[in-house]
Amino acid sequence: MRPTLTITGLLVLWEIAGKLGWMNVALIPRPSTILAALWLQAGPAGTPPYGLWAHLGASLYRILAGILLAIVFGSIVGLLIGLTKWGRRILQPVVSAMMPVPTLAWTPILLLIFGIDDRTTITVVFLSASFQIIYNVAAGLDALSDKAFWVAQSMGASRMRCVWIVALPGIFPFLITGVKLGIGFAWRSLIAAEMLAASGFGLGFMIYDAVEYLSMDTIFGGILLIALMGYILENIVMGRIEAVTTKRWGVQVER
Questions:
Q1: What b/e readout covers 43-69, taking b as 16+ CB neighbours within 10 angstroms?
Q2: What confidence tens digit (pLDDT) does each residue in 153-188 have?
């Protein structure tokens, strides 16, 4: 309830400030105006009809697909860097060299390869989220004590069994942190990529299209939807996964 009350309070203050004339409502519309515009876009009178759901669905599909690919790829690369000498010597320098490159710098290349297609935006999301996951998984392995592996091996566990019963539960809090960070970076890259490479739908495309018509209520509506979806993915979806999995594996996560 506490985050909900905080956000609601800010929206109420925003509404009051707009009604009292403390801000230019032509540039910064009141929340009530923004919600009315979103309601219109979500119905048959929208352009296109029910277009808001198409924009929202397209963005959610792209970000979920990209993040799932990043979790798989980032976990594997992070494990290789943390558990093998050749992974640390070969993969870590490559990751360190690639990480500072802005993800959007790859967008023109991806456009030439895939064209204006979902594959371009999904790849942008995948690249944005992967590095956060790789670094956090590798850091989690560095934080594990070698004694935990020695104990498992002394009881007859194979190398792969040690990865399952020692490494994965041990790195899970770090993996969750990496995914949460990755979601934030992924949303930023997705919206920018949708402005360049989306084929008619997506929240980024909706905002970019509204700029041409100076539709500030639609622009702010898209921004609020991005914030809402990011909050739901990071705190509700990932929070639930974190609670269930840490209970299953017996990992205690400090808060």
A1: eeebeeeebbebbbebbbebbbbbbeb
A2: 677 766 677 776 677 777 788 888 889 888 988 998
pLDDT in tens, 114-137: 888 888 899 999 999 999 999 888
**DSSP annotation string for 207-224:** HHHHHHTT-HHHHHHHHH
Q: Please, what are the domains in the chain?
A: 65-202+229-249 (1.10.3720.10)
Cβ–Cβ under 8 Å, residues 22 and 2 = no
**Residues sharing a CB contact under 8 Å with residue 67, sequence separation 6 or more, in sequence order:** 125, 126, 129, 179, 182, 183, 186
CA pair distance 245, 198, nearest whole angstrom: 35
Q: What type of residue sits at position 118?
A: D
